[in-house]
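Final report, Chapter 2: Outcomes

The project's central promise was a pipeline that accepts a single protein chain and returns its three-dimensional structure in a standardized token representation, suitable for archiving and comparison. That pipeline is now operational. To close this chapter, we reproduce one record exactly as it appears in the project archive, with the input sequence first and the structure output second.
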Amino acid sequence: MKQKTIITIIGILNKVYGFRQRRYSPFRTLIGVVLSQRTKEEVSFPATDRLLKKAKNLNGILELTEKEIEQIIYPVGFYRQKAERIKQICRILKEDYEGNVPKTRDELMKLPGVGGKSADIVLSYAYGQPVIACDVHVIWISNQLGWTKSNNPEKVREDLHIIIPVKYRRTLNDILVQFGKEICKTGRPKCYECLIRKYCPSAGKWLRKYSKIHHSK
């Protein structure tokens, strides 16, 4: 797909789902991304607020017991494991990074429970770096659009960083996540409602599938 078409697609989606990406403190972003793993935003965001309202900062979290953290962040998924990880991360930040959150992907990925996607979220939302965090929505939609042929997050990231202009990278995750939740749902995209279907090489396949299902009823 030509870059001009890619920019057109992003422009269309940006008009519907786009917004100016806000910056958050590195520590808040890191804690938030750990709590958000395998947990819906509606649950993880309030849990992050509760924890940081109680603890305030890294030192405050270290003063809490894991049991206290568990009670504060519940009902996030795997809250016991996450409470342990958060304590471990805070100790490492204090002992190895003078209380600061690392600014490189490699260093972030050394922290317990922080993978590539989580590291990219910190780099993008906290440090304003032009990186694309590849979650399930980004991977699925990128495959449908023919931007990648891989389901491996690292390979998808590599492919997208080649074709997506730098100025669009920071907001692409937000746009595709919202688009994925509303229209291009994994395994059941609403191509008949999609504003970019004429640019999508997969739309015809899905529309034919839906047509067969409709006529067979």
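Archive annotation: Residues 88 and 154 are 25 Å apart (CA to CA).
This record, like all others produced under the grant, will remain available to the consortium after the project formally closes.
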